[in-house]
Structure formats: structure tokens, C-alpha cells
Automatic annotation (TrEMBL), chain A:
<dbReference type="GO" id="GO:0030964">
    <property type="term" value="C:NADH dehydrogenase complex"/>
</dbReference>
<dbReference type="GO" id="GO:0008137">
    <property type="term" value="F:NADH dehydrogenase (ubiquinone) activity"/>
</dbReference>
<feature type="transmembrane region" description="Helical">
    <location>
        <begin position="6"/>
        <end position="27"/>
    </location>
</feature>
<keyword id="KW-0520">NAD</keyword>
<dbReference type="InterPro" id="IPR038430">
    <property type="entry name" value="NDAH_ubi_oxred_su3_sf"/>
</dbReference>
<feature type="transmembrane region" description="Helical">
    <location>
        <begin position="61"/>
        <end position="82"/>
    </location>
</feature>
<protein>
    <recommendedName>
        <fullName>NADH-quinone oxidoreductase subunit A</fullName>
        <ecNumber>7.1.1.-</ecNumber>
    </recommendedName>
</protein>
<keyword id="KW-0560">Oxidoreductase</keyword>
<keyword id="KW-0874">Quinone</keyword>
<dbReference type="InterPro" id="IPR023043">
    <property type="entry name" value="NAD(P)H_OxRDtase_bac/plastid"/>
</dbReference>
<keyword id="KW-1278">Translocase</keyword>
<comment type="function">
    <text>NDH-1 shuttles electrons from NADH, via FMN and iron-sulfur (Fe-S) centers, to quinones in the respiratory chain. The immediate electron acceptor for the enzyme in this species is believed to be a menaquinone. Couples the redox reaction to proton translocation (for every two electrons transferred, four hydrogen ions are translocated across the cytoplasmic membrane), and thus conserves the redox energy in a proton gradient.</text>
</comment>
<dbReference type="GO" id="GO:0048038">
    <property type="term" value="F:quinone binding"/>
</dbReference>
<feature type="transmembrane region" description="Helical">
    <location>
        <begin position="88"/>
        <end position="110"/>
    </location>
</feature>
<keyword id="KW-0813">Transport</keyword>
<keyword id="KW-1003">Cell membrane</keyword>
<dbReference type="InterPro" id="IPR000440">
    <property type="entry name" value="NADH_UbQ/plastoQ_OxRdtase_su3"/>
</dbReference>
């Protein structure tokens, strides 16, 4: 764990700075109440009513997130393979070809079904 | 007896180990450098964009306006800290902190130079040399996305929500292309440690053998940092300010700080992975002292400034992409290109390892593969264009039919029809009598007659 002590130190410095800034910003500025100021900003018109617990957003974004996970996992498998490539030889190469081909089938399927269409 | 491992003041052993002290010194220095670089970069960007747009830019505060960003920071601190009524307050406070900390942390593994001597102790100019350095950067910068999406969500307002979601969708989409472009570098260097990658580039910078990976990374890093031409989350015309619309005062400043630090981090990563890290560029590298001591920090900073300049140049030159164009570029171009390129690199590397290949064979194979790949891409694009034009033709036909339908509604102008509204039941009455036969009060005799009947 010793390796991560420097990361922790930098994290403490950065976190201290960020928390200090946030508290500082709340203390140094003026406080002049105005109802319109605390409304949601929508270019001056009456704000759209928001349902409790956050608004809705297009389901398309979930699809993007799921596709991301598929490819991110592929990348996670690629990294150790790439690092150990020289010692794996032809075997490693063939295996990775098969793996990428399999993921490519899924990719082609998603493309064909219109999962990669945005508007 | 003086202990060399501990910090000793006037013969008093403080029991603070030197490595710890050095780490703290390096940590504070790194933090200060990132903050100063941010202040400098904001000023630099404004000046360079002004120069490109034939304006003057900030030149009042300090020499050449250098202190402008500092003055802006002080001004932000003196502004009211508004928390909107709709906001989810704890998360609203947490989001800027959560976006700023990873920005600093990601920089911890970037090597700034070789071993130097600080207070008589040898140490490398790198905060921490993790064996999985690049993976660490990817992990930490992903945490930064939480800050953005939470900021958008907790504002309780429409535009920030859309901006935050768009921003996170954009970042995760380009992270894949980014990750794939790294795999080629790991394959060549045989390590994921940033210092190891720099050491492996002693002979050639990886931008030469891995040019496609390098180009993909440079495109992806612009998308990853939400900078122009990929600054859709902050598209003023569509989303006001994006996820930080509702933020004011120093909370807003923290988002700004995080954005500019991320800019420096991705540039440094590009330098480390593809441009030789802290190594001196070619004519300078002939001098043996160029890669020793503190000099490498100069080369690193110069490379960094060149990258920052390129970022600003892109912003000054290119218009913003549309969301669908942007996602198409990420998912349909960058990902397949980087996957195929990675396989190509792997095959070449293996052939080289086996010894079946020398440079003479390499070039025609590369060119042939590249040509084949371009052909496939062009074929796909042509197919897509045909599809789009077919769609457009059928849409135009539908539009035309709809317009004919709207004739009774004045072509839908000035009031467009409601969804499902039918043509008005009243049809203009045909003139039965000549226009000339108008009575004194402006009606035709037939109308007079009908009025009379009612």
C-alpha cells in the first residue's frame, strides 16, 4: 500500500483546496435575497416544473452507457494481453483475433439494429 | 548518530522519513504548478483566440494581462454563492469538489523528468511511479465524470440536466477510442507504467510507428475534455452553459479549474505516450546532457504548451459538431479504426518478433492494409449517403403531401396546425356574380339576399 501514499497526499491537498474553495465561496460573497434569483435558470421564462427526484431523460443514454460497458470490458481484456504480447507469441495473437471478432459481431449487430443512430 | 533516512535538523532527528518529505514537497509543487498552469492557460487561450480573431484580448491586469485570470478568480470569490431552490443541496455542494479532486489526482503518475537531486537525495520527477500508471489515469479521470453528471442532475433544472447527461455520454463514448489507442502503446512498450513507456521511447517516439493510434488519441482527447469542436455540453445556443448553468462563485471556478487541469492532463498523457515524454526532441537530443537533470522539464513544458496551443487553435478554427455527427464519429469511425489498427499492429509486431519481417516488407503491407481499410470506409459511407438521400426523398414526398393537406390552413402560416388538426370545414365560397356587382356596403347581391333571409 506504500505505493499509494503519494496519491493520498496529493488527494488530501486537492481535496482540502476544493473544500476550502466551496466554503470560502459561500462566506465571502454577498447575500441579497431575490426570489427570481433562486429559480432555475431558463433564459427568463418560467422554469419547467421538475418532478421530485430529478427529471427524465431519453432512454437512448442508457443504451450508450451499456454499449460503453461492453467495450470497456473488451479494453480491460486487451490491456494485459498487450503488455504480455511478446511472451504470448502466435497463440496470444490468434486468441485475441477470435475475441475481437466475437465482440465485432456484437458491434455489427448493434450497428445494424440502429443502436448507433443518434438524432 | 545521524540517520540518513530521516530528516535531521541541527542534529535533532525528527523521525520523518525523507521519502515522505520529498513526496510532500513534490505533491505541493505539483499542485501549485497545476494551479499556475491553469491561470496561465486561461490567459493564453484568451490572448491566442483574440489574436486569431484580430482582437486585442485581456491586456490590462499585470504585464500583457498575465494576471487577468487571477483577478477573475478573486472576482468570482466575491460573487454571491447561489444555491437554487430546486437543487439537491448536498449533491450540489459535492459535485464541484468531486470534479476537481480527480483532475489533480490524474496528474500524479505523469513523469516530468528523470532522476534529479533534491536536498542531496536522488528522486525522479514524478510523484508516484505506479506499474499500472495509465490504467490509474483512466480510472481517476472516469471519477471526474461523476462530478459533471451529478452537477447536472442536482441543479434541478432542465438545461444543466441535459448538459450533464450529454457530457457524460460524450466522455464515455470517446473513452473507448482513447483506451483502444493506448493498447497499441502497451503492446510496443510491454508495460503500463508511464515511466516505462517514456523509457521505451528512447530510440523512436511512438507517434511514428503508431501514427494511427496517436491521431485517434488526439481526436479522442479533445472529445474527452469537452473542448471545441466537441464542446456540445456547453453549446450556448442549445443548453445555455451546460451542466454548470446554475453554479456561481467559487463552485463555478472549481469546474473551470477542473476543465483546464484535464486539458493539461490529457496533453501530458499524449506527450508521455506518443511524443517521447520528457525526452528532448531530435536535434537537441544529440547533446548528451539534454536528457539529464532538470532540463527535461523544459522540454516537457514546451511540448505541453504546443499541445495547449493546438487545443486553442482548434477552438479558434473549427465550428461545433452536431450531436449525431459527434457520436457517429466516435462510435462508427474511431472505434472500428482503432480495433483494426490494433490487430494490424499486433500482427506486424509478432512477425517482427519471429524475425520474419524487416522494414522493407513492412511498408507495402501497411500501405495495402490502409488502402483496403479506406476502401471499406468509403463503401460504408457511400451506402450510408444513399440511404440518407433515399430517406430524404421519401420524407420530402411526405412533406409535400402534408403541405397540400394544409392548403385550407394557409400553408400552416402564421399559425402551424395542431397535431391531428384537419383541414377547416369551411371552403371559400365561389363567386357566382361578377365582382362589379357589389352593393353600396361592400357585399355581393347574393350575400345581401342571404343576410336578409337570416
Amino acid at each position: 500500500m506504500d505505493t499509494y501514499v503519494p496519491v493520498l497526499i496529493l488527494g488530501l491537498i486537492a481535496g482540502g483546496f476544493a473544500v476550502f474553495s466551496v466554503i470560502m465561496g459561500a462566506m465571502t460573497g454577498p447575500k441579497r435575497y431575490n426570489r427570481a434569483k433562486y429559480d432555475s435558470y431558463e433564459c427568463g421564462i418560467e422554469p419547467t416544473p421538475q418532478p421530485v427526484g430529478g427529471g427524465r431523460f431519453p432512454v437512448k443514454y442508457y443504451l450508450t452507457a451499456m454499449l460503453f460497458i461492453v467495450f470497456d470490458i473488451e479494453i480491460v481484456f486487451l490491456y494485459p494481453w498487450a503488455v504480455a504480447f511478446d511472451s504470448l507469441g502466435w497463440f496470444g495473437l490468434a486468441e485475441m483475433f477470435l475475441f475481437i471478432l466475437t465482440v465485432f459481431v456484437a458491434y455489427a449487430y448493434v450497428w445494424r439494429r440502429g443502436g448507433l443512430e443518434w438524432d | 548518530m545521524a540517520n540518513m533516512d530521516h530528516w535531521v535538523i541541527n542534529g535533532f532527528d525528527t523521525h520523518i522519513p525523507w521519502w515522505f518529505l520529498l513526496t510532500v514537497i513534490k505533491g505541493v509543487a505539483l499542485f501549485a504548478m497545476l494551479v499556475v498552469l491553469t491561470l496561465f492557460n486561461i490567459w493564453f487561450e484568451r490572448r491566442v483566440v483574440s489574436w486569431m480573431q484580430m482582437r486585442i484580448g485581456p491586456n490590462r491586469v499585470g504585464p500583457q494581462g498575465l494576471l487577468q485570470s487571477l483577478a477573475d478568480g478573486v472576482k468570482l470569490a466575491l460573487k454571491e454563492d447561489i444555491v437554487p431552490e430546486n437543487a439537491d443541496k448536498p449533491v450540489f455542494w459535492l459535485a464541484p469538489v468531486l470534479s476537481a479532486i480527480p483532475a489533480f489526482l490524474a496528474f500524479a503518475v505523469i513523469p516530468w523528468g528523470p532522476e534529479v537531486s533534491i536536498f542531496g537525495h536522488r528522486t525522479t520527477l514524478q510523484l508516484v511511479d505506479l506499474p499500472i500508471g495509465v490504467l490509474y489515469i483512466l480510472a481517476v479521470s472516469s471519477v471526474g465524470i461523476y462530478g459533471i453528471v451529478l452537477a447536472g442532475w442536482s441543479s434541478g433544472s432542465t438545461y444543466p440536466l441535459l448538459g450533464g447527461i450529454r457530457s457524460s455520454a460524450q466522455m464515455i463514448s470517446y473513452e473507448i477510442a482513447m483506451g483502444l489507442s493506448f493498447a497499441g502503446v502497451f503492446l510496443y512498450a510491454g508495460t503500463m507504467s508511464t515511466s516505462g513507456i517514456v523509457a521505451a521511447q528512447e530510440q523512436t517516439w511512438y507517434i511514428l510507428p503508431l501514427c494511427i493510434s496517436g491521431i485517434i488519441y488526439i481526436i479522442a482527447m479533445v472529445g474527452e475534455t469537452n473542448r471545441a469542436p466537441f464542446d456540445l455540453p456547453e453549446a450556448e445556443g442549445e443548453l445555455v452553459g451546460g451542466f454548470h448553468t446554475e453554479y456561481t462563485s467559487l463552485k463555478f471556478a472549481l469546474f473551470f479549474l477542473a476543465e483546464y487541469i484535464n486539458l493539461v492532463t490529457v496533453s501530458s498523457l499524449a506527450i508521455t505516450m506518443f511524443f517521447g515524454g520528457w525526452r528532448a526532441p531530435w536535434p537537441l537530443s544529440l547533446w548528451s546532457g539534454a536528457n539529464q537533470g532538470w532540463y527535461p522539464m523544459i522540454w516537457f513544458l514546451v511540448k505541453l504548451l504546443i499541445f495547449v496551443f493546438v487545443f486553442i487553435w482548434l477552438r479558434g478554427t473549427l465550428p461545433r459538431l452536431r450531436y449525431d455527427q459527434f457520436m457517429k464519429l466516435g462510435w462508427k469511425v474511431l472505434i472500428p479504426v482503432s480495433l483494426v489498427w490494433l490487430l494490424l499492429v499486433a500482427v506486424i509486431r509478432q512477425l517482427k518478433n519471429v524475425g520474419d519481417m524487416d522494414q522493407a516488407h513492412l511498408i507495402p503491407i501497411c500501405l495495402g492494409a490502409a488502402a483496403l481499410f479506406v476502401l471499406v470506409l468509403v463503401a460504408l459511407e457511400v451506402r450510408e449517403r444513399n440511404q440518407v438521400s433515399r430517406d430524404r426523398r421519401s420524407r420530402d414526398a411526405a412533406e409535400l403531401a402534408r403541405e397540400e393537406d394544409l392548403e385550407g390552413l394557409g400553408g400552416g402560416f402564421p399559425v402551424p396546425p395542431m397535431p391531428g388538426q384537419q383541414r377547416a370545414a369551411i371552403t371559400p365560397r365561389p363567386l357566382r356574380t361578377p365582382i362589379l356587382a357589389v352593393t353600396a356596403n361592400g357585399h355581393t347581391p347574393a350575400e345581401e339576399a342571404s343576410d336578409g333571409r337570416q
